[in-house]
C-alpha cells in the first residue's frame, strides 16, 4: 500500500473513533434513555395495583381529640402525596420529551476519550515517517539506476568522473543528485544533474496527486572560450516558449522565434536563434531524429555565449562561473520512468555530446561574426547601464541613511526646546511628503 493511501486510511479510522462514543459512555446513555421512557399512565396503574394489593385494616374508633389529630395528620399526608404526584408527573413529562431527542454529552474532564487525539497525532507522524523512508529509498534506487545507465558513456568521453575525493554520484539533497565530469575536447566541464520529485515529503506527495510532477535530467556544459563562436540558440516546445524566455534573458534580446518546420523539426518545437548558420550546423540529422522521437520529453535546449539564466545551478558550475566561462550549453529532459527504463537517459546524454562536438566544430562566416559582435556590444552597454543605475541607486540610498544617522546624532545633543522644534519640523516635512504623494495619485 502506498504511504499516501495508508495515511488516508489511518486518518479515516481515527475520525470514526472520534465520532463514536466510548463503550462506557454509550452504556450510561442507554440506561438514561431507558429510565426516561416510562409512561406516566403505566406508572399510575402500577401504583393503584400496589395499593389494592396491600392488606386493609379497619381503623378502631378513637376518642374525639385523638380523632381530630388523626384527621389533621391524614390531611397533611394527602397534601404531601399530591405534591409528590405532581413532581413525578413533571419528571415523567420531561423524561418523555427527552426521549424524543436524546443527547449524549461527554464530560471534558472524564479522560475516557482523550487518547483519540494522541492516536491521530501518532498516526500522522507514523505516516510521514513511513513516507519519508519509502520516498528516500525510491529516489536512491532511481538515482542508482540512472548512474549505472550513463556511467559507460561518461567513461568513454571523460577522463575524470566524480569529485576529487573519488565520489562519483553526489547526493546534494533527498531529491537532487549530481555527477561532475571533466577532461574532454571542446568543453571545460559537464555537470549531469538529476532532479527528482520530492517523494520523501508527504505534503509534496499529496499536493502532486492531481498535478503529476516528473523527474528531470539536466546537463550543464561549460564550453572552452575558444571552442564556441558568438551565437545564441534555443530549441523549446511551443508551450514552454514564454517560460524559457523569462528564465533566460538573452533569448529575448538576441533571438527571434521561428517554427521548427523551417529547420527540419516537427511543429511541436520553436527554434530561437540569432544565427541561422549555427542552428543548421548544430541540428544534425541524428539530433533531429532524437528530437522527433522524444519530443514529449524535451523541456529545453539552450546554447548561449552570454549565459545569464535565472535558473538554479549546482555548486559544480560555480567554479566555471568564477573562471568567467559564460559560454554554456544547457539540456533539460523529462525522465519519468528511470527506474523501469533508463535507456532514454543514455540517448539524451549521447545527443548532448554530439551537439557539443557540433558546436566546437562550427565556424561562423565573417559577416555573422561582425553582426554578432555589434549586437553583443549593445547588450553589454545595456547591461552596464543597468548596473550603473543600480549602483547609483545604491549610493543614493546609502547617502540618505548616513544623513538620517547624522541628524539623529545631532538631535541627541540638542536641548529639550530645540529638540521639540526639530521634531515638529520633521513631522511637518513628513506630512508634506504624504500630501504630495496623495496629489500625484489623484492626478493619475
* SSE pattern, N- to C-terminal: HHHHHEEEEHEEHHEEHHEHEHHH
Q: What spatial form do the alpha-carbon principal axes imply?
A: extended
Please estimate the helix content: 55-70%
- Roughly how many Å is the radius of gyration? 43 Å
Main beta sheet strand tally, sense and closure: 10 strands, antiparallel
Q: Which runs of at least 5 residues are low in confidence (pLDDT < 50)?
A: 49-67, 90-111, 310-317
Helix/sheet category: alpha+beta
Q: Estimate the strand proportion.
A: 5-15%
User: Total strand count, please?
Assistant: 10
User: What's the pLDDT, averaged over the residues?
Assistant: 76
Our count of helices gives 14
In short:
The protein has 444 residues and is of the alpha+beta class. It has 14 helices and 10 strands.
Textual characterization of the structure:
This protein is of the alpha+beta class. The protein has helices at 3-19, 23-36, 40-53, 64-100, 115-157, 202-207, 241-247, 249-254, 276-282, 285-293, 318-322, 343-361, 366-412, 416-443, and strands at 160-161, 170-171, 176-184, 187-195, 216-223, 232-237, 256-259, 269-273, 298-304, 328-334. The chain contains 14 helices and ten strands. Strands 1, 2, 3, 4, 5, 6, 7, 8, 9 and 10 form a ten-stranded antiparallel β-sheet that branches. Strand 3 and strand 4 form a beta hairpin. It starts with a helix and ends with a helix. The model is unreliable at 49-67, 90-111 and 310-317 (pLDDT under 50).
Amino acid at each position: 500500500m502506498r504511504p499516501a493511501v495508508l495515511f488516508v486510511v489511518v486518518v479515516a479510522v481515527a475520525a470514526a473513533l472520534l465520532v463514536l462514543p466510548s463503550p462506557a459512555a454509550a452504556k450510561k446513555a442507554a440506561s438514561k434513555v431507558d429510565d426516561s421512557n416510562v409512561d406516566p399512565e403505566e406508572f399510575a396503574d402500577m401504583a393503584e395495583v400496589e395499593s389494592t394489593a396491600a392488606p386493609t385494616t379497619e381503623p378502631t374508633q378513637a376518642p374525639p381529640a385523638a380523632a381530630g389529630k388523626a384527621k389533621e395528620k391524614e390531611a397533611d399526608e394527602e397534601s404531601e402525596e399530591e405534591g409528590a404526584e405532581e413532581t413525578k408527573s413533571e419528571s415523567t413529562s420531561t423524561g418523555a420529551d427527552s426521549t424524543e431527542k436524546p443527547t449524549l454529552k461527554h464530560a471534558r474532564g472524564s479522560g475516557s476519550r482523550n487518547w483519540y487525539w494522541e492516536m491521530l497525532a501518532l498516526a500522522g507522524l507514523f505516516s510521514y515517517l513511513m513516507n519519508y523512508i519509502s520516498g528516500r529509498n525510491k529516489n536512491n534506487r532511481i538515482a542508482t539506476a540512472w548512474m549505472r545507465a550513463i556511467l559507460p558513456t561518461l567513461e568513454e568521453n571523460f577522463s575524470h568522473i566524480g569529485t576529487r575525493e573519488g565520489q562519483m554520484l553526489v547526493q546534494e539533497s533527498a531529491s537532487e543528485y549530481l555527477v561532475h565530469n571533466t577532461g574532454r575536447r571542446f568543453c571545460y566541464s559537464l555537470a549531469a544533474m538529476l532532479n527528482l520529485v520530492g517523494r520523501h515529503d508527504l505534503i509534496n506527495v499529496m499536493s502532486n496527486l492531481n498535478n503529476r510532477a516528473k523527474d528531470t535530467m539536466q546537463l550543464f556544459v561549460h564550453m572552452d572560450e575558444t571552442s564556441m563562436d558568438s551565437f545564441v540558440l534555443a530549441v523549446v516546445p511551443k508551450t514552454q516558449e514564454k517560460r524559457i524566455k523569462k528564465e533566460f534573458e538573452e533569448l529575448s534580446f538576441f533571438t527571434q522565434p521561428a517554427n521548427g518546420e523551417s529547420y527540419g523539426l516537427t511543429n511541436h518545437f520553436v527554434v530561437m536563434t540569432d544565427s541561422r548558420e549555427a542552428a543548421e550546423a548544430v541540428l544534425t540529422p541524428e539530433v533531429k531524429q532524437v528530437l522527433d522521437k522524444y519530443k514529449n520529453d524535451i523541456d529545453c535546449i539552450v546554447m548561449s555565449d552570454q549565459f545569464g539564466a535565472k535558473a538554479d545551478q549546482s555548486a559544480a558550475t560555480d567554479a566555471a562561473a568564477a573562471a568567467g566561462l559564460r559560454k554554456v550549453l544547457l539540456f533539460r529532459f523529462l525522465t519519468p520512468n528511470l527506474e523501469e527504463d533508463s535507456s532514454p537517459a543514455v540517448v539524451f546524454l549521447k545527443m548532448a555530446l554530439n551537439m557539443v562536438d557540433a558546436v566546437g566544430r562550427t565556424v561562423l562566416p565573417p559577416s555573422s561574426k561582425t553582426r554578432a559582435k555589434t549586437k553583443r556590444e549593445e547588450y553589454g552597454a545595456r547591461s552596464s547601464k543597468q548596473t550603473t543605475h543600480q549602483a547609483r541607486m545604491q549610493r543614493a540610498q546609502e547617502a540618505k541613511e548616513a544623513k538620517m544617522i547624522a541628524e539623529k546624532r545631532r538631535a541627541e545633543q540638542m536641548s529639550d526646546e530645540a529638540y521639540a522644534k526639530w521634531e515638529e519640523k520633521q513631522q511637518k516635512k513628513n506630512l508634506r511628503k504624504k500630501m504630495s504623494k496623495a496629489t500625484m495619485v489623484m492626478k493619475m
